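Ticket #4471: complex job returned nothing on first submit. Input attached below:
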Amino acid sequence: MLDIWIEKYRPKNLSEIHGQKENIQKLKSFVNAKELPHLIFAGPAGTGKTSAALALSIELFGENYKENLLELNASNERGIDVIRENVKDFARIKPSNELGFKIIFLDEADQLTSEAQAALRRTMELYSSTTRFIFSCNYSSQIIPPIQSRTVVMRFRPLIPDQMKSRLNDIARKEDFTIDEDSLTAITEISEGDMRKALNILQAIYSSGEVSARRIYEIAGYAQPSDFKKLLSTSISGLFDEARAVLDRMLIEDGLSGMDIVKGLHSYVRKEPIAPRQKIEIIMALAEAEFRIVEGSSDNIQLDALLAKIAYIGNEYS
Amino acid sequence: MVWVEKYRPKKIADLIVSDSILDQISKWIDLWKEGTPVKKAMILYGPPGVGKTTTVHVIANELGWPVVEMNASDLRNRDSMKRIALMASIYGDLTTIGENRSGPNKIVLIDEADNIFEGRSRQSGGDTGGISELAKIIKSTRNPIVLTMNEYYEFRRKSSASEIINEALNIEFLQYKRRNDTDYKQFRMKLLARINQILREEGIKIGQSQIMDIVERNENDIRGILNDIESIRDYGQGGASSQADVGYRDSAQNIYKAISTTFKSQDYNKVLRTLYDKDFTTEDYMMWIDQNLPDEAQEPKDLMDAYEVLSRADRLVGRVFKKQHYAFKMYAEEMSAGVSVMIKEKNEHYVKYKFPEIIKSMSRMREARRSREQLLMKLSVAAHTSKRKTRDYFWFYSYLATRDKKFLEGIEKMLQLSDKEVARLKKSGK
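Support reply: We reran it on our side without changes. The output follows.
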């Protein structure tokens, strides 16, 4: 077993899932009836959508669940054709269980364009006798109506602090360490109902050797990569050559794409204390850069132009 | 003849492949000589240009067996699948069917097998996939089948791929992996010995440090290395502004002149005239401007204004492809040629124009991007988390990797991380 806690402590059955009581009851009733409709799991990150799909499969199919479950991720695959081919290949082989169906779990289904979803709908119809689809998404409104009408929609809500704290305490006990109330509060505050985030932070502070609220906030800050900080601070103070050196390193050595860089800068800038006028100018520059990266041909030219603009903003609105 | 062809290995001794890999392969071939082994196929995987395909040809050559080669893109239709199935199932070739032959006597090579899936289309009838079809062929083959691929881990994720992987001997050409293991060291030794031998034969003298630079820059891609060294011969060593410009120098003279006119001439029409008989592309021209613009514009406003022109020109270049409208390119070029008009405070000093960093590093950048994506994909699958989300949590994996030795060892083993991937993981965790 991989020593990533979100995997190590992933619920093995539906009862182990924290929160989402109604959904879990409904899912259990499907298990008892040995029948399953197509489903949409809608809700923010870290609320148990993937866990519910996995636990459901384990309860339905037992040990051989892996043969009867195809996990796909809309944002990982290289386009709708690949997804359809995968579905086809999987659906073609007869279910190796007595229920007569297999499950296809499509994570981040809302990442698909509506055209892609329409294409998927046809595939869904084609294999409906032997497969059940579970679509997971942040908002069910992003799923096209024809798919919605063929599925049961379940909403997953952010976990409330008490639910998170009891789970975090459980895990701390199993890993043989104690965690005080302040630290628990700090984690729940930062992770805003996202269990994945909470567990990752818990594992990170445990590995740092100091389980304290202070360390938790420190690590939360750590999640902001220092390269973006450097990129912004050099360019805004007009050190164009230095900024460009940082940029080139991120592109060439770290393998980031132009889009990664614009998005990373954006999320960094949003949280930074920068004078409002500068901030809005920078956000406009980022928006324009993102647009031009999509439209243009060379990420590099667009990013260099962005740095030049930020340098100007830093000089003009200081 | 280009060197890559001229010096393509013909004997096993010429191969730049570690002994342990050669050992595994020849043992497998020996099994074939004695009968039909349990693993009837062999998968050779690794980055491009490290000699996977060449090794197969050389070994076949030593055996005196022909290689029946299929490219994955050939596998689009049923007929070619049938052809492979037939070639794999018979001894001898199509002209000798019926003759009494016994025992395997050819190697069926399926190059770039990781592309089979995408190569498949409706033409195949849609009812059987290329991969499961191939798995069937492997089960019944009477001749050794070799598959080569770059993206082994992507391949492994495809459905039915496990049927092939489990039936095959999987060998990684691990030149990137574990810089201090003996396989890697041996590969590097053979590589340098081979390069020096070629240089001796060609009567070319290059410093060892320059050779090492070229080897590093090409990330051990033998094909790339030979091409680069060959271009040193063609363009000579003197005169070049930097030895790192090797291989990009053919149009450098002309573009250098165009760039200096672009920046230094006061006459926009003259700049346009120098572009009439250019032998470089608009895109290259723009990248050269991009590289050197900051040295010419001293004021923030000038720099921004000049970049604004270049950025809009680049947007037009993007539209050339999206709209298939080539006239945009002319506008893009003429706009780029005018960047110096935007610079009010010109740099009056002599500027030594530099070769665009981004062109020099193109292959390194591509490789970095590829390996980053691959690492994210591995983590994504292991943690049931999308690649997008995994990107957000990369800090977390880095953090653990630098602090928790057990975690790192576990993840390294389970995800089969290469040294490079481990380094990438640990890098942002400090």
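Confidence is low (pLDDT under 50) at residues 96-100, 118-127, 236-251 of chain B. Closing as resolved unless it happens again.
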